[in-house]
Design a protein that fits this description.
With 614 residues, the chain is an alpha+beta fold. It is built from 13 helices and 24 strands. The protein has helices at residues 5-19, 73-81, 169-183, 203-206, 216-226, 239-258, 292-341, 345-356, 397-438, 442-454, 475-478, 506-514, 545-558; strands spanning 23-28, 34-40, 44-50, 57-61, 86-91, 98-106, 112-120, 127-131, 137-140, 144-145, 151-152, 262-265, 274-276, 287-289, 370-374, 383-387, 490-493, 499-502, 522-526, 534-536, 572-579, 583-584, 595-596, 600-605.
Length: 614
Amino acid sequence: MAFDGILTHNLANELHEILQGARLDKIQQPSRYEMLLTFSNRGMNKLYISTNPSSPYCHLTDLKFTNPDVAPRFTMFLRKHLQGARVNKIYCPKFERIIVINFTFIDEFSEVINLNLIVELLTGAANIILVGEDNIIRDALFFNQVSDKRVISPKFEYTAPEAQNKPLPEDRLIEINENLELLKTTSDLSSLYLDKIDSHKSLDKELIKLSLGVSPQVVNEILFRSQISNNASILSLTYQETINLLEAAKSVLEEALHNNSAYIYTDSRLKKPEYHCIKLQSLGYAQELDSISATINYIHQLKANDQALDKQRQQLSSIVKKELKKSEKLLNNYYKDIKSNENFEDNRLIADLLLAQLHNLPDSMPSNAKIILENYYDPELKEIEVALNPQLHMKQQAPYFYKKYNKSKDTYTYAQNHIPETEDLINYLNTLLSQLNNAEDIETLNALKIEIINGPLKHKVNTTDTGNKKAKINKSKAKKVKHPQALPPQEFISSNGFTILAGRNNLQNDKLTFSNPDKNHLWFHAKNKPGTHVVLQGSISEVKDIDIIEAAEIAAWLSLSAQEKKIANIISIDIDFCSLKNVKKPNGAKPGFVIYDNYKTIRAEAKSHQELKK
């Protein structure tokens, strides 16, 4: 979620309470878009500022960063002019996405100097600017000319981004309260604030003008609380809906001004985790934290973890895809070999006939390199035309066809014998690829990584040189995990107290399915698609319908790819379930492959059931 003015305003207030009077001890710039300011004030506090154009933000952090060997220009300037200064005030001017840190220090002439470090958190134009008491720019992280009136460069007067023509939230709140009092005595809407809204435009477009700091997400929240469609216009509202809209706007603006908490939204249906200082009921379940800074830090740590997860997923997937491509090509060649050599017996027939009729063969090669032979194996003794090898003598033709027969037979037999094995490997690789796509955490990916190195691929995949630097696996490090199959499965507790276990990889799936001492426990798997083995530790006579439904929903969720899990709509798939005694593993089958009978199928919604996770 991009910073809006309300969030920035409340974050600035929070930073002011924590950092007022603090001394700036250290200034670092880990990368082009990052700045780290370390303060001391009854302990150490690090203020992290990201000016990344796509999503600028700032927050207090306790993370460590690696710094360049040579400090950049802007860092050196700040160290010279700000290091040792104390924070006088931190504020957000008029709910803009700007945080001003006012520093005070005493120079060598014993004069009190004030400098403002202005952090502009504007998407696409984020910047950090040092401005003096005379409002002249001393230096900036980035120099640019936004317009004729706004130039970001030393010795130019600092001009704030163009102000929005909106009232402050507190002013609009007074107006809304007056409107609500008025509506107690009249149903005339002509004198209300809402009358100023363009009646031909939808409310989600017009309410953005409600006040400074209001973002589209806040507008959605107001409409959600008032239970009014985003596409509705002001003319379509009834008297009661007008009251509902004003009440919703009032409650949101009051939270914006007086709420000291922050909320995180990590619902699986959201494309990415969200956060705000307003409790956004429109985003579902909210996890409350008592610090905006901690909330932002947590969300961006989640983002960093997701990036690390995607990176490892891509590395492992590239290895499996490479082997899958090789196996599919090999299978295609086997089928081609069978097709081209399926008539290998014809070569032996020709060789037999050439030997039997050797005395009738001409001494020299015919001009067209063809000969007519009588087929003694045919009851009607039909003649066949044979194309000879023109480079060989007539007496060498029979051995040539015998050799051709043996080669074709061997190629045909070899291909026929290796097709089932190759098809099994392709099915296994597709299952492994699906599990990599479905993995939700580093632990599951690590389990799959060990399976790739120590499982059926260990003699097929070069783990030290894959031809792709991004796809390398350090086998020596992986071997440190002596028993990867012992990694505990995911564990859930059903509503009625029954344990539900879900495998993390194919090795664990096999152990979960075939090492369970009670064969009456129930086994779940997605129908006709790769997925995780899920075991409900209870027999069909012990568990209730809700336990079966929850286990099936978990199996459905764990069969979805990472992309499918981000889809807002609920996905339902067919799940087969049966007792463990009805699940069998064919001899020589790859890890995770089973057959089963006496099963039932239910339609289950894919749900992560994090609330059931142990």
